[in-house]
Amino acid sequence: MRRLKQPSTVDIHQMKKFPIVAVLLPGAFLAILNQTLLAPAIPIMMDDLHITENTAQWVMTIFMLVNGIMIPITAFLIETFTTRRLFLFAMTLFALGTAVCAVSPNFTILMIGRIIQASGAGIMMPLMMTVFLLIFPIEKRGTAMGTVGLVIGFAPAIGPTLSGWLLEKYTWPVLFYIVLPLAIIDMIIAYFVMKNVTTRTFPKVDVLSIILSTFGFGGLLYGFSSAGNYGWSSLSVIASIMVGAVTLILFIQRQFKLRQPILEFRVFKNQTFRITTIIGMIAFLGLISAETILPIYMQNMAGYSPLDTGLVLFPGALLMGLMSPINGRIFDKFGARWLVIIGLTLLTVTSFLYTQLTPTTSLSFLAIVFTIRMLGISMVMMPATTAGLNQLPNRLIPHGTAMNNTMRQVAASIGTGILVTVMTSKAFLTSNSPGLVEQIQGVNVAFFVSAILSLIALGLAFLIKGTTPAEERATIAEAESKS
């Protein structure tokens, strides 16, 4: 097989970056937006499609599940296909799935559409992060990855607000009809402007690894995400977690034996990457848990409307989107250490503030605390991620980004399942039919657990090196010249 000539590092850095960024960001934004876009539509779908609440929840669960299964194999896909071809393939899958969902006459077809949609979405985020890390030199990666933080924080938070507003006037298929043309436009532009920047190493297809990865990550994601609905004693939850854990161990063992692994776990040998990945997992859990638990508290316990919930969440999401690029520039000048320490301090303090919720907690308190919380998360997520990925050589960046995204997805799934369980278990601890006070006490305990996790991450943050990206670049260059 004749291998295509790869662009050199000089060629990559001299490329026009704006067109590449301009097609990657909207694609990733649409992909992540669809994780939460359908949440307010579930009650309407239950009536239209004649399904139960547990069945309807699958429109959310299946997207996260397939997304999580796809992410671990993106490193293999990035090393096998050209950047342009893989992006167009991912967006085609996403657009096709969106079209199927829009015209679906029943729940089965809707689920097929969501699976196709999530298959494309799962490729987008690791691909975008990999491309950004390759086209920008190390001293400018903070600013570049700050724009990625905008997508990660803003898209899932704006989803429920946007769909809630649309559903006041239209029915649920309109959510897909609005996304579809945007995806198609992005594909058309990408066809003309997208460039090939990743290096193709043509790794051997290891079918067993793909199977083990699917059952491993899929089993864990399904098991923990279903625990909140079915309970930890459910046979399906226990079986899923056990199958996921066993196959994941087998998958990891096999990757260490392969000369060209599907997912390179040796990236965890780097201490900075290991620490920043754990910090990123806890920060992402802090983001997702608040966006999951707060609406439950506000609408089911405090008597607020869905619109009130959206108004509480939106300012924080907007601030996170605005601050992520700014934090990226700060990272480029001063490094990640103090950004992450300050951000985790804000996350910890706001988590403790949310342990004092009552039936009469004001909207202004909820909104202000959530906004400060999102400011803290914006100072942690991408700076920590970039600091870890900066420690890896270019050949391991696809594996690092895939691993980072996979661990975040696992953390959100496992963490949210545990926190929802803590919330309900505490409520039922004192009574078989808990009242309002007991239910809110469960919410407070869940945020207390979140605060303790943030405190652990804060301790880890002091282990991050206090170096700037420019200093890191010089160190890496020196190490590479000696090796």
From TrEMBL:
Membrane-spanning parts: 21-46, 58-79, 86-109, 115-136, 143-162, 174-193, 205-224, 230-252, 273-297, 309-326, 338-357, 363-389, 410-429, 441-464
GO annotation, cellular component aspect: plasma membrane
Protein's cellular compartments: Cell membrane
Protein's recorded name: DHA2 family efflux MFS transporter permease subunit
Matches recorded under PANTHER family: MAJOR FACILITATOR SUPERFAMILY (MFS) PROFILE DOMAIN-CONTAINING PROTEIN (PTHR42718:SF24), MAJOR FACILITATOR SUPERFAMILY MULTIDRUG TRANSPORTER MFSC (PTHR42718)
Topological relation to the membrane, as annotated: Multi-pass membrane protein
Domain Major facilitator superfamily (MFS) profile: 20-469
Keywords: Cell membrane, Membrane, Transmembrane, Transmembrane helix, Transport
Superkingdom field: Bacteria
GO molecular function, one term: transmembrane transporter activity
Source organism per UniProt: Ornithinibacillus caprae
InterPro entries: EmrB-like, MFS, MFS_dom, MFS_trans_sf
